[in-house]
Amino acid sequence: MIDNYAQLIFDLGDEVSLNRDDFIVSDSNKDAMTWIDSWPNWPVNFPGLNIFGAPSSGKSHLANIWKSKSNALSINAASLDVLNVRELLIDHKNVLVDNFDNSWREETLLHLYNFIQELGGSFIVISEQPVSQMDIKLPDLASRVSTLSTVELKKPDDEIIKGVMRKLFKDRQIDVSNDVVNYLCRRMERSFEEVRRLVDRLDKISLSEKNAINLSLARRILQETC
Q1: Does pTM top 0.90 for this prediction?
Q2: Residue 1, in any domain of the structure
Q3: Do 114 and 71 belong together in one domain?
Q4: Is the pLDDT assigned to residue 226 strictly greater than 70?
Q5: pLDDT band at residue 190 under the 50/70/90 scheme
Q6: How many Å apart are CA 166 and CA 60, to the nearest integer?
Q7: Strands 95-100 and 123-127
Q8: DSSP per residue over 89-119, as a string?
Q9: CATH of the domain at 171
């Protein structure tokens, strides 16, 4: 069972915490979060997990939660050489492959997959589309990734957008009414980058004009993008 905690599922540098306790769980991410929360109690002989989703859907943040929990080695170098794989795994048996696409060396990923299986470790692949649907040329690799469980991170819904916005305002010690948050949520572009941009812009304008963030200011900021 997933607790209804507030959780941010996107990277904001130093502005927010990436801890599990800060996470907003909603219909758009609850399946993926269930997998992360249930580790290491995954099914026996479970080959691994592929988390996929569009840019800014929260993949990297969710991956970071699992990486911290599992002490996983994070690999995001598409040019990684096969000869370096076993050496990298000396101190790790869990691996996070981040931003995987067809530019990666397939032989390297195959060896990495096999080594993790030998070590009895866990394996997560982060990608924009399901790995099983990619044009993988190496038959052995295509066969292996087809056995990965796949879970999608969907676009952020209203619950997450509002939660993220409130958290960012709180981090800046700004008190903003629910009317403002609701107004922005109904009219803004559906992305975490836009939440961040709006909060930053509203903060700067309110400071420069020495006024509170209200509906009038929110309306004016949104009109800037039209």
Answers
A1: no
A2: no
A3: yes
A4: no
A5: confident
A6: 21
A7: parallel
A8: TTT-S-EEEEEE-TTS-HHHHHHHHHHHHHH
A9: 1.10.8
